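Handout, page 2. Input:
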Amino acid sequence: MLKKYSDSLNSAKARLKIADHMVKVGVGIIGEKRILAKALIELQKSVSFLIDAFLYYEPEKNKIKRLGDKESRAQVFFNKISRKYLNKEESNCLKKVLILTKKHKNAHLEFVKRDKFIIFNGETYDILTAEGLKNLIFTLNSIISRLP
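Output:
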């Protein structure tokens, strides 16, 4: 079980590093704003691996069963585990990444305007900026660095 925990944690770190590189180089140096969507997807993969790492770590203590699909694993994590290890802001950051990715996948229209990547879903829209993703990356990095 600890090997799976370690593998999930290492995968989360790797995906976070990829997302960070995409934001710094792709947006910061090259100036390509469409990379923000790809960086968001890498952040979502990192969050999924991070949730898996917590779920592999926690059963050793409290006998929590790992469930099959991503949504049920996330629900178990946010309902039973996240309160022990994360503050409300960090938990909201993880939720925000998952929600934004879901909206991105279901988007009717996406476009770039100035320094923003806009995701349009029917009557609502969400805005991704490099600064916003950097804040999410910073929060995820601090969560990962505290894990045993």
